[in-house]
Design goal:
Blueprint: H1 8-12, H2 21-29, H3 33-48, E1 53-55, E2 68-69, E3 71-73, E4 87-90, H4 100-113, E5 114-120, E6 127-132, H5 137-146, E7 162-163, H6 177-187, H7 189-193, E8 203-206, H8 215-218, E9 221-228, E10 232-233, H9 235-243, H10 248-253, E11 261-263, E12 268-270, H11 280-284, E13 289-290, E14 294-301, E15 315-321, H12 328-344, H13 351-358, H14 360-367
Parallel strand pairs: 7-8, 8-9
Antiparallel strand pairs: 1-3, 2-4, 4-6, 5-6, 9-14, 10-13, 11-12, 14-15
Helix pairs in contact: 2-3, 4-5
Length: 393
């Protein structure tokens, strides 16, 4: 297809050593009129310094309340091929592992019904298929679902759970993040596909405190692998690290956030009672240090990007939970959280914001968690220290 629009401003974004989204849109525009008009409208946005997308609208597929995000051009006469430019979210496999056959399958469907543009992956974790028309949505869904794919969450629903690669290729994983995420996805299908909550609800699972999926900053519920017991030390390997040039005091001891490690030039010692299991020392000395044998997860609650009250980080509500299939304790706790939030939350209020507004006490009493010192979020805010009037009699 011949070049449809001149794009001098977008051309500037192709310069430099970095990958360019403009270059990829131009490649798609060679055979897709939708991608070509998307390029033309984007150039106009850069030239006039305003956007021309109308976000929202009720579009979807039969039986699902989420998974499709409606988007329309406010200039359909000028750019008719992007008059509709809906986004389809596809539920990604745990850990984002694909075969080349699976990727070709998705791309073939999207070349047939959409713009050919994709985004691997969206901030929630889904495969993002960018740009299709309303009349193509059922056909896209039928072709994807007949091949075993499903839509992800969107709107005021549980969003598609996601996780790090976990034990599939990481020796530090303390929990099976892949199996946990698959089990949660299967267990919360209704909550994922039929929006019924005040706002979005995200679950992310990390195999250790390195937290490669940034769950502590991006998820309403963060499930982070940890352990009980002492860190196992191989002093022979510690000596090899020192012999090979590692400055153990500078790189390990001085970097310990709780100052629980000491090294006298011969032996590394850890005061495990003061360790907060941040994983820094283990990640740096992989051959010398390993987590304890009893594995499980810390459950945290409440992180989000800024909408109502600004960015928030998760804080601990369960210091240690043993996680074994079918993860009944975890699922029951999440269901209790959802019930309490659904009952008390305002429109577009995340669960962490609700706790900020009415306090941790109401939450803990409803979900049945005992208050423990690890729940202290910051000095002078003690959610574990409260009593009922009946306790005073």
């Amino acid at each position: 297809m011949e070049k449809k629009y001149e794009t001098p401003l977008l051309d500037e974004l192709e310069k430099g050593p970095w990958p360019s989204f403009v270059k990829e849109i131009k490649k798609a525009a060679v055979k897709s009129e939708m991608a070509a008009d998307e390029l033309g409208q984007l150039e106009k946005s850069y030239r006039t310094k305003r956007g021309y997308w109308k976000h929202g609208g009720i579009v979807g597929v039969l039986g699902y309340g989420g998974g499709v995000i409606g988007r329309y051009s406010s200039l359909p006469g000028e750019f008719p091929k992007v008059a509709h430019f809906h986004t389809v979210r596809v539920n990604q496999p745990s850990g984002w592992f694909y075969t080349t056959k699976a990727l070709r399958e998705i791309c073939d469907v999207w070349d047939k019904y959409g713009s050919g543009l994709t985004n691997f992956h969206g901030s929630t974790g889904d495969i993002i298929l960018l740009g299709t028309r309303t009349e193509n949505l059922e056909a896209v869904f039928a072709e994807l679902s007949s091949r075993g794919w499903d839509l992800g969450g969107s709107g005021s629903a549980m969003r598609t759970p996601s996780c790090c690669v976990g034990p599939a290729r990481c020796e530090w994983a303390n929990i099976d993040t892949l199996d946990i995420t698959y089990s949660l996805t299967q267990g919360f299908q209704d909550e994922l596909h039929r929006p019924a909550f005040p706002y979005k609800f995200k679950i992310k699972t990390a195999g250790c405190a390195v937290d490669c999926v940034a769950s502590i900053a991006r998820a309403d519920v963060s499930i982070i692998g940890t352990w009980k017991g002492d860190i196992k030390i191989d002093q022979g390997e510690v000596k090899k690290y020192a012999k090979n040039g590692m400055d153990i005091n500078a790189e390990i001891v001085d970097m310990c956030p709780t100052e629980c490690i000491s090294y006298d030039g011969k032996e590394l010692k850890i005061n495990n009672e003061d360790c907060n299991r941040c994983m820094h020392c283990i990640a740096k000395m992989t051959k010398a240090l390993k987590p304890g044998d009893e594995k499980g997860a810390t459950i945290l609650l409440g992180s989000k990007a800024p909408i109502v009250v600004g960015s928030m980080m998760s804080w601990v509500i369960v210091p240690f939970m043993k996680l074994e299939p079918p993860y009944t304790e975890l699922k029951d706790l999440i269901r209790k959280m959802l019930e309490w939030w659904d009952e008390n939350g305002k429109p577009r209020e995340r669960i962490g914001e609700l706790i900020e507004r009415i306090g941790m006490r109401s939450f803990l009493e409803y979900v049945g968690l005992p208050p423990v010192p690890q729940m202290v979020k910051e000095p002078r805010r003690d959610p574990f220290y409260f009593w009922a009037e009946s306790d005073l009699k």
